[in-house]
Write a structure and sequence with these properties.
Elements lengths: L10 H5 L2 H10 L13 E4 L9 E5 L9 H4 L2 H8 L3 E6 L3 H5 L3 H16 L3 E7 L1 H12 L7 E5 L6 H9 L14 H12 L4 E7 L5 H8 L7 E4 L5 H18 L5
Parallel strand pairs: 2-3, 2-4, 4-5, 5-6, 6-7
Antiparallel strand pairs: 1-3
Helix pairs in contact: 4-11
Length: 256
């Protein structure tokens, strides 16, 4: 059982090469949007009569905005599967990662206020950059506050770190060395050692993030992994969300 204090992603590591790696892998020039003093968020309560017990926090991909979840039908899809959950979409774009403020802002603007308001469970979810951010928060933020994550084709580092893990025989046999950037080594060390939250993972077989996702899958129970036909696109992610949410409903929370 690893807590954030025992499994940190070093801030210095996040400074070195993070923005360049993410832009090249995910978003072109998507990191040029300005940041705000408070993360923009749109809330979708399950009922007008009161707050739900569970909040799902949705984080966008590098090329998307927070309102993309509504425009792409994800809000409607999740609402049909989990009508008892409140949802919030957070416009956490690449600019916040560039400024190294993403984890602090998510904690201060969304996570801690949600806990203070009485939510019993918080879940993080997102595709691509949003999946990376969900895992990053587990390792650098308040992991105790998060019950689990549902990540779709998350970015998990460049070719250097992935080759190093493969050569070691997989993440469980891997020992951090000189390959990869500091933040990549720290993130993989955290995931290898385990986090006190459920990780559900899905990706398409044609997705360019599949290499890293396959390595992460080696650390997870089989029932929390889903691979389908498709690539790095909304149509694939919608299908993954649908199936993973159905599985989670059937299995419930894994006891800690």
């Amino acid at each position: 059982m690893n807590r954030a204090g025992r499994c940190p992603v070093a801030q210095a590591g996040l400074q070195a090469g993070l923005l360049l790696a993410l832009i090249l892998a995910l978003g072109g020039c998507a990191g040029n949007r300005p940041t705000e003093d408070r993360l923009p968020a749109q809330w979708y309560p399950a009922s007008a009569e009161g707050q739900a017990e569970t909040l799902l926090i949705l984080l966008p991909g590098a090329r998307d905005r927070g309102d993309g979840f509504y425009q792409e039908g994800v809000i409607e899809l999740i609402r049909a599967q989990r009508p008892d959950w409140d949802l919030v979409t957070v416009d956490a774009h690449l600019g916040y990662y560039r400024e190294r403020s993403f984890v602090d802002r998510l904690g201060e603007d969304i996570v801690r206020p949600a806990l203070a308001s009485g939510y019993r469970e918080l879940w993080l979810s997102g595709p691509s950059l949003g999946g990376f951010g969900s895992l990053l928060y587990l390792c650098l933020g308040d992991a105790d506050a998060v019950s689990g994550v549902i990540v779709l084709a998350p970015f998990l580092g460049g070719g250097g770190i992935l080759r190093d893990i493969e050569r070691a025989g997989g993440p469980m046999d891997w020992v951090p060395g000189g390959a990869g950037r500091d933040f990549e080594r720290e993130l993989w060390a955290c995931l290898r050692d385990g986090v006190d939250a459920d990780i559900w993972l899905g990706w398409g077989r044609s997705d360019r993030m599949g290499r890293g996702n396959q390595l992460l899958a080696e650390l997870l129970p089989e029932e929390r992994i889903l691979v389908i036909e498709g690539g790095h696109r909304w149509s694939t992610w919608r299908e993954l969300w649908l199936e993973l949410l159905e599985r989670k409903s059937d299995q419930g929370r894994t006891p800690r």
